[in-house]
């Protein structure tokens, strides 16, 4: 048998796989996905997927046309994946070749929901064509020129104030400039991770390694693995790593039961430590965000040490090696240990705004699982919130305050997201979906309220669990018959 990666000329009569056959073969262990009503077998390719294996595994056995197109350039569909096609897909099984003119039964709620989802998907695909016609998927490199000037200014100020400063105020200003540099350059690294700068995988990956690893001490590979999964299963408590933050945060009471994280491949336990932190999570939200960058160091190192088949491990490890030389050396130029320690904490803690911006769009949104038939567009708009701000402030948010639009079109340059907003609003009105957008302060209030609502239910959950445990113990007791007095 030739390998799946070898192109085979189609036969006169193409194979057809029905929904029940697809489910059966996936349950048997095959890695099959559906794109544009065609079935692709990815068993041998999955370990080489640039976006990681999990991104594919979340698509096994279902139609992932919209997810695939959103996260891949068109040439992948046109030229690459065709080698893995094995059959056409028949969405519904049927005992008869002909359907009755008048249906013999009413449609189920599931069928109605599936039909509505299909309508939303069709409208979403038309929206994408319209945005392409408006050239909103084209990169305007003048925007990056302005951004590069901002990055260079901030990094230069951090160096000058550190090396030539004469007082504490100069040194702490340097730390703030470095924090703002890391905050801003993260948006550029984000674009590299989505291959939306040069639109060339190798070039953008090189840019990402330089920005994230060499300059920031973080693994772009770890970010891509986590972020691509987040884009596919947004706000799913079991699958989305971006809302799996035990023992510190729980964005839904479903987490109280504990669960197995498919991303972290371990049990997430709602133990006493988690119960304590979650009870106060609305108060701890901002302080923990200030510690976020330290956690990213750990995640990056764990990824590079353990991720199998990662092709850029050596390049990234070299990047982190260089980072852990230049940054400590840079800090050690300060005149005292106290200033050095203060510099480390200020430069790291004041990147907290990036973590707030990331969590703001999702922590207060729906975490329900509406099933595989929910359209990609509906799920993204249900689980994601945009932040409203004046155009002149776009630089601070990197243009990514339009997270809902970004989730609909991950490969659209972030500088164009604002211009795409009117089209998205029109689309939502057309198909009856809600476009969630609030000001920055209101968004923070929504997140605070959502965290507090969950925190307030910890006590009730523990009381219920205690009561159920007592009932179970009482039910297990063996009641001995009363001893006879005549013995």
Automatic annotation (TrEMBL):
Q: Which cell locations does it reside in?
A: Membrane
Ranges where the Cytochrome b5 heme-binding domain occurs: 14-90
Q: Name one Pfam family in it.
A: Cyt-b5
- Molecular function as annotated in GO: metal ion binding; oxidoreductase activity, acting on paired donors, with oxidation of a pair of donors resulting in the reduction of molecular oxygen to two molecules of water
Gene Ontology annotations of biological process type: lipid metabolic process
Could you tell me the membrane topology recorded for this protein? Multi-pass membrane protein
Q: Which family does it belong to?
A: Belongs to the fatty acid desaturase type 1 family.
Name this polypeptide is given:
Cytochrome b5 heme-binding domain-containing protein
Source organism (scientific name): Mortierella polycephala
Q: What is the lineage of its organism?
A: Eukaryota, Fungi, Fungi incertae sedis, Mucoromycota, Mortierellomycotina
């Amino acid at each position: 048998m030739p390998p799946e990666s070898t192109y085979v000329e189609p036969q006169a009569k193409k194979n057809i796989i029905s929904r029940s056959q697809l489910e059966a073969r996936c349950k048997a262990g095959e890695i099959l996905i559906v794109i544009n009503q065609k079935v692709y077998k990815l068993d041998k390719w999955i370990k080489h997927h640039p976006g990681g294996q999990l991104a594919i595994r979340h698509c096994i056995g279902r139609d992932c046309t919209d997810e695939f197109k959103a996260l891949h350039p068109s040439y992948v569909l046109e030229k690459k994946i065709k080698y893995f096609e094995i059959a056409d897909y028949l969405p519904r099984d049927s005992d008869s070749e002909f359907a009755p003119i008048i249906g013999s039964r009413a449609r189920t709620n599931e069928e109605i929901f599936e039909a509505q989802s299909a309508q939303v998907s069709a409208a979403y695909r038309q929206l994408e064509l319209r945005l392409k016609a408006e050239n909103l998927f084209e990169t305007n490199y003048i925007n990056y020129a302005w951004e590069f000037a901002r990055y260079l200014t901030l990094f230069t100020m951090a160096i000058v104030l550190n090396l030539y400063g004469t007082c504490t105020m100069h040194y702490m200003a340097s730390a703030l400039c470095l924090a703002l540099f890391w905050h801003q350059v993260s948006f550029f690294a984000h674009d590299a991770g989505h291959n939306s700068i040069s639109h060339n995988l190798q070039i953008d990956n090189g840019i990402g390694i330089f920005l994230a690893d060499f300059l920031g001490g973080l693994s772009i590979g770890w970010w891509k693995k986590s972020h691509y999964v987040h884009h596919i299963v947004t706000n799913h408590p079991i699958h989305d790593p971006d809302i799996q933050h035990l023992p510190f945060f729980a964005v839904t009471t479903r987490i109280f039961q504990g669960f197995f994280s498919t991303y972290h491949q371990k049990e997430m336990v709602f133990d006493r430590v988690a119960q304590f932190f979650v009870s106060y999570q609305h108060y701890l939200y901002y302080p923990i965000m200030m510690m976020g960058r330290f956690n990213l160091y750990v995640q990056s190192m764990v990824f590079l040490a353990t991720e199998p088949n990662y092709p850029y491990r050596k390049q990234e490890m070299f990047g982190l090696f260089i980072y852990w030389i230049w940054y400590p050396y840079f800090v050690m130029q300060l005149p005292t240990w106290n200033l050095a320690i203060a510099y480390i904490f200020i430069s790291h803690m004041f990147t907290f705004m990036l973590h707030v911006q990331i969590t703001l769009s999702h922590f207060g949104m729906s975490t329900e699982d509406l099933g595989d038939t929910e359209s990609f567009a509906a799920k993204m708009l249900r689980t994601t919130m945009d932040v409203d701000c004046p155009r002149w402030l776009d630089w601070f948010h990197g243009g990514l305050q339009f997270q809902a639009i970004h989730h609909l079109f991950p490969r659209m340059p972030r500088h164009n997201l604002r211009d795409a907003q009117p089209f998205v609003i029109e689309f939502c009105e057309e198909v009856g979906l809600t476009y969630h957008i609030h000001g920055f302060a209101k968004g923070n209030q929504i997140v605070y309220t959502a965290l507090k609502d969950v925190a307030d239910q910890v006590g009730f959950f523990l009381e219920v669990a205690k009561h159920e445990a007592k009932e179970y113990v009482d039910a297990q007791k063996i009641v001995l018959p009363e001893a006879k007095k005549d013995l």
